[in-house]
Design brief:
The complex is a heterodimer.
Chain A (H helix, E strand, L loop, with lengths): L2 H6 L2 H6 L15 H14 L6 H4 L5 H14 L8 H14 L5
Helix pairs in contact in A: 3-5
Chain B lengths: L14 H14 L6 H4 L5 H14 L8 H14 L3 H13 L4 H8 L10 H16 L5 H9 L4 H24 L6 H4 L5
Helix pairs in contact in B: 1-3, 4-5, 4-7, 4-9, 5-6, 7-8, 7-9
Classes of the chains: A mainly alpha, B mainly alpha.
Chain lengths: 101, 190
Amino acid sequence: MSEEKKLLMPDYIQEVSRGLKIKQIQDADATGDTAAAYDQWRNASGRTKMPGILKCFGQRPDFLRQVMQFSNTVHFSEGHLSRRYKEMIASYVSFLNRCPY
Amino acid sequence: MPTKIKIVEDAQATGDIAEAYDYWRASSGRKQVPGVLKSLSARPDFLKQAVDFSNTIQFSDGHLSRRHKEMIGSYASYLNNCAYCLDSHAFFLKQQGASNQTVAALMEGNLDKAGLTPAERALLDYVGLITQAAYRSSLEDVQKLRDAGWREEQIAEAVYIIALFAMFNRIANAFGIPPQNYMGLGKLTS
């Protein structure tokens, strides 16, 4: 990382950018039920690369499927709150929890 | 005692909410829906998913044992000041065979007096770190867990459980669900 970029980034982002702290199962390494759960997300989203946050759940593909389902139920859809307000909440909570991802 | 945010009680539930409550009753074999699940009554579809994913990741053996999961849940609930969850998960921990001394010490957040193995101590120190400031955890912190004998998939599962308690502790505290006093009664409610 350039010195200039380091100056612009808070310490906690530099820490995160050092690399993964716990091993993830990457797209190319996924086999069995993990590969099947990843495929399910790719088919539903129409995208090809799994988001890092979902790969955190690669060790428990059964749980990963449930996480994708309840995220769609309660966050990625209109409910009692609009999608816009849900993303307002999520953005501010992520700021407070220092989660740059 | 009224809750801070309104919940739908067992007797008042109709339609989808009644159906979601029955879903939990069928899954648990019990009658009185726990307050933390009634907190989800505004979204009965989400409530049923919460029953399912809690069974998948917390209320079953996985990469971690039920007992270690309840140790994590009890200590995280202590750190998050969730009296409701601490009472119920300390009781579940006791049901999983933990000694009275371990349960009592964890209810006071006292890891030194909990009679933990070095591996369990490393795990609960990590629970403290992730619960209080996950962003501050380092490669070295995770290496301490590996050195204590925890496998990568066990560390991953511990993180899911710590996060699960971050969620339910906040829900129980925001709604203000009164503790069920399982520890005082020495048993679950019916």
